[in-house]
Amino acid sequence: MAKDLLRERLAKYIPPKDQWTPVDEALYGVEDIYNVPDDKAKKLREDAIRYSFRHHYEGNKFYHEYCKGRSVGPDDIKSEADFKKIPLVTSTFFKDHPDKGMDFVKWLQTIYTGELPILNLKRDESFSEIFRALYREGITITTSSGTTGQKKLILPRDKLTYSRFAYSGGNMFLTIGCSGDMTMIYGIPKVPEDFVGMSFF
Fold first, then answer.
1. For 87-113, how does the pLDDT look when each residue is reduced to its tens digit (9 = 90+)?
2. Cβ count near 26 (within 10 Å)
3. DSSP secondary structure letter of residue 118
4. What is the rounded distance in angstroms from the CA atom of residue 172 to the CA atom of residue 167?
5. CB 3.0 to 4.6 Å from 47: which of 22, 38, 58, 113, for a disulfide?
6. What is the C-alpha separation between 111 and 62, in angstroms, rounded?
7. What backbone torsions phi and psi does residue 139 show, to the nearest 5 degrees?
């Protein structure tokens, strides 16, 4: 069955349970993401959001300073009512980047949570070459389509984040199900220049 095959493939994205964070508990720890009891869903959501905020606050220098400038830190987020205090970064910020080379890499270093690996690149390297070099180091760069005529939105993702993305998309299809003669294709890119495609036939 297609569902069994997808379930088997998705299992490869799930980290060992002893390594789960509250984000992983919310993502992998429920059987049906659309039928979680309200109290449990609320707790999973609150714990995951608080954990994510602290993770980026402590691991991203730009975001740390951004939050400090707004006088908000992880200890200020005690309940769901406090979520509105969490400073959001607009998508336009992620479109305001240099066009190529080491200037682009330096920009990535300012927005990435954690540390980007050291890359041996030429000063004027193209996006494609930079994306490939990062991919070899375990970082996948995801982009928007840029259909508004503006620069593409650029977001670097480590293997853990990318695995969560792949799992959540595939699990959505498992949960909502397919009926009749529907065949499902769910594509996850293996190389940086590929794209994600989802369709039903």
1. 999 877 877 777 777 888 888 888 889
2. 23
3. P
4. 8
5. 22
6. 6
7. -115, 125
Q: For the whole model, what pTM was predicted?
A: 0.78
User: What DSSP line would sit under 4-61, residue for residue?
Assistant: HHHHHHHHTTPPPGGG--HHHHHHHS-S-TT---HHHHHHHHHHHHHHHHHHHHHH-H
Tell me the HSE value of 161 on the side-chain side, using a 13 A CA sphere.
Answer: 15
Distance between CA 49 and CA 70 in Å, rounded? 18
Which H helix or E strand runs over 166?
helix 159-176
Residues forming beta bridges with residue 198, ordered by sequence position:
186
Which comes out higher in pLDDT, residue 151 or 43? 43
Q: Which residues contact 93 (CB under 8 A, 6 or more apart)?
A: 111
49 — pLDDT class (breaks 50, 70, 90): very high
Q: From CA 157, how far away is CA 176, in angstroms rounded?
A: 26
DSSP 79-106: SGGGGGGSPP--GGGGG---SSHHHHHH
Please list the residues that pair with 143 across neighbouring strands.
154
Q: 18: which 2 tokens?
A: 């002893």
Phi, psi of 192 (to 5 degrees): -60, -30
Q: Please state, in angstroms and rounded to a whole number, the distance separating the CA atoms of residues 35 and 43.
A: 14
